[in-house]
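A quick aside before the break. I want you to see a complete sequence-to-structure record at least once, exactly as it would be stored in a machine-readable document. Don't worry about memorizing anything.
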Amino acid sequence: MSVIVMADDGVPFDGNSLAAGPLGGAETAFIGLAGGLAERGHRVYGFTKGKQRFNRNGVDWAPIDAGLPDEADLYIANRGHRLLDHVRRARRVAFWVHNPAGYVVKPRYLIRLLRRRPVLVFLGPYHATTLPAWVPTGGRVVIPYGIDPHFQQATERAPPPPRAIFTSNPLRGLDWLLQRWADAIQPNVPSAELHVYSGLATYGGGDASKRALAAPILARSEALAGNGVVLHPPVAKRALAEALTQARVFLYGGDPGETFCLAAAESQAMGVPGVVLHSTCLAERVVDGRTGFVLDDGDDAGFAMRAVSLLTDDTLWRMQHQACLAEQRGLSWVNVARHWEALLP
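That is the input. The structure line, written in C-alpha cells, reads:
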C-alpha cells in the first residue's frame, strides 16, 4: 500500500461535492481519481478548500489550509503552481495539468518545475502538444479522465424524440450553438428541442467578469424558448445521466480551452451520438461517422446538416447509438488509477 497525497487550491470542493450538485471537470476528476486510487488499496489523502475533515469511500479529506504532510510516496499537485512548494519529501511528484498548458510558461511555474522536476500529466495527445518541449519536467505522460459510473450503465434504447442536448460551460460556444440552432437546425426540424444544461454554478459561480459574459448568453437561451430551447440549471451527475437518456444528439462546437471534454465523453458513454467541430481534442472523443460526426472548424452548414440528420434519421441514429454503447464507455476511475500507479516510485 502506497501513501498518496493529492492537493487542489482552486474553487472549494471536497469528496461530498460530486453527489451534492454540479461540478467542473477538474474537480470531478480529482474526486474520481482519489476514489479510484483508494479502491486500488492505497492510502489516499485529499486536501482541498473544503471546510471539513472526513473519510468517504476510503479517502481522507481535509482542508488544505490546515497544512499538508511533508512525506508521501506520490504527491499529486493539481493545477496550481504554489502546490509544488509542499510535501517536500515526497518520493515522486506529479503535476496534473487540465487546461491548455501554455499557462505553465511563466516564471512562477518554470522556477518550481525546475526545482521539483515533477512528472507532468496530460489528458490526451492534443493536450500534450500544448506545452513546449523545452519546459523542464521530470517526464511527461498522457492519462485520460475516467467516466463516472452513472454514465457507464446505459443500455440500448429506441430512438427518442428529436431532442438535442448541450451540457458544457455557457462560455464554451453556447452562443454559437444557439445561432446555428435558430438559423439552420430547428427550422428544418420544427418539433426539435435543444435542452441546455449550463450555468456557472458548475465552476463555483465564476468571477464577476465571467458572470457578466455568461448572463446575456443564458438570457438568449431563455429568449429562444419559441425555437424549442429549454434552459436548465447545471445538475449533479445522476440527474445529468438521466437527462442524457432522453437526448438524441449531443451538440458542441468546441472551445480553445478544451483539453478532454468530459461532457462529450459522458454523452458518448450514454449512447448519445455527437455532432462536434474538429476544434482541439473533440476528435479524440467522437469517432467521425461512427459515434457521431466531427466537422471542420468553420463548417457551420455541415454542422447543422449533420445535426438535422441525427434528429430525423432513425436508422442512422440507431447505428451510431449502438456504436457509442459498444465502443465509448471509457475507463472507470479504478482503471485510470492503474495508469497513475505507474508513477509510483
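Two observations worth writing down. The chain has two domains: 3-146+331-341, 149-327. The mean pLDDT is 95. We'll return to this after the break.
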